[in-house]
Amino acid sequence: MTYHPKSDFMAVMMTRGFLADCTDYQGLDEALAKGVVPAYIGFDATAKSLHVGSLIQIMMLRWLQKTGHKPITLMGGGTTKVGDPSFRADERPLLSAEQIDDNIAGIKKVFSAYIRYDESPGGALMLNNAEWLDGLNYLDFLRDIGRHFSINRMLSFESVKSRLDREQSLSFLEFNYMILQAYDFLELNRRYGCLLQMGGSDQWGNIVGGIDLTRRILDHEVYGLTSPLLTTSDGKKMGKSAAGAIWLNADMLSSYEFWQFWRNTTDADVGRFLKLYTELPVDECGRLGALGGSEINAAKIILANEVTTLAHGRAASEAAEATAREVFEKGGIGDDLPTLILSADEIGDGISIVQVLVRSGLAASGKEAKRLIADNGARIDDQPLTDAGLMLSASDLAAPVKLSAGKKRHALVQIG
User: Fold this and answer.
1) Contact between 149 and 96 (Cβ < 8 Å)
2) Each residue of 243-264: pLDDT tens digit?
3) What is the CATH number of domain 339-415?
4) Which option is the CATH number for 8-227: 3.40.50.620, 3.40.630.10, 1.20.120.80, 1.20.120.430?
5) Where are the domains of the chain?
6) Most buried of 5, 9, 61, 242, CB within 10 angstroms?
7) pLDDT tens digit string along 335-378?
8) What is the C-alpha separation between 391 and 394, in angstroms, rounded?
């Protein structure tokens, strides 16, 4: 659709590629142009860190604050106990209260790098929906809230329909998730004047449910805005790599590996990712993304530097780039490479190279490690690794050994 926004926030969402859909473009835009709009995104605490797949939502909250509005990061301490079924093929594993609290503590670290939490009008709020969900009386909730939901309509939402069409089980526990998320929006509007819920396009049904509930019970006008569900140009889900999830917390993934993920971006994705994940001007993002040949590699380094600086700070970004140059251009080992430290007990009489490749994250499985060696894709101290049966002894690992998978992924291994 052609719509010319009045507010800075909507202009950013539209020009940088954040906008998939909105429940009322004009109404939301006018509210944003009028004054400070509190807006929230919910994050369930299913792991100790968020990964790159959540970064588009974090950047939306960052831009919201940069354009003068109030972000609310809602931790799903309550909803994580149920599990969001949206576009999943199976039910989420249930976590204990202690696991959920540990995960929330880890996730909170991510946000502080992107969003300012303080008492100012645009200062962000960090909330936990366990605050209002844990104390609900089930019968009162059914009577006061549940009666506003149509099963027919809930079944029509794509996230539910796709699961049922595949004849995969959808438990009653998960079916309640939609109602709980809707109730979150109602409570955030009632308590904090929250006018907008944002999320990925898979959350559309949940967001619309919250808008309907808030209108019915409080007669307040509220809005929903979704971002596209991102895949890379080769069809892979954003946030995953061959070695696993690309975590945002440095204690779960080193800043070097994080930098390297962005440096390895496919040529076709560079311009789009610069717009979404950095704050470089849109025209500059377009110019860099249009570069061809070896010049696109310079754009990828800019992308890696900008994204890593936001997540981990300028010093970490510069150290990662320096390590990459040391490794790629000079054949050195670099100071910042991910390092696997093995104890003498783990090595024993010797440890197989296949096991070490898996443990260091350069291969996802023993089978993949053997295939890497067979395809001449593995190197040890910059020499071809051809023997999948190679055993490394404690003396072999007295000094750091550099392992490589292809030209771009490296790790050090040593005894500690």
Assistant:
1) no
2) 568 899 998 888 988 998 999 8
3) 3.10.290.10
4) 3.40.50.620
5) 8-227, 254-329, 339-415
6) 9
7) 567 778 888 888 888 899 998 888 888 888 889 889 889 988 88
8) 10
pLDDT of residue 87: 45
pLDDT at 89: 47
Find the helix or strand (DSSP H, E) in which 103 lies.
helix 97-112
- % of the chain beyond a pLDDT of 70: 92
pLDDT tens digits, 297-343: 999 999 999 999 999 999 999 999 998 887 765 555 555 677 788 88
| Total length of the chain | 416
Alpha-carbon separation of residue 101 from 47, 104, 106, 287 (angstroms): 10, 5, 9, 44
For the domain made up of 254-329, give the CATH fold.
Answer: Tyrosyl-Transfer RNA Synthetase (1.10.240)
Q: Maximum distance among all alpha carbons in the chain?
A: 73
d(CA 368, CA 365): 5
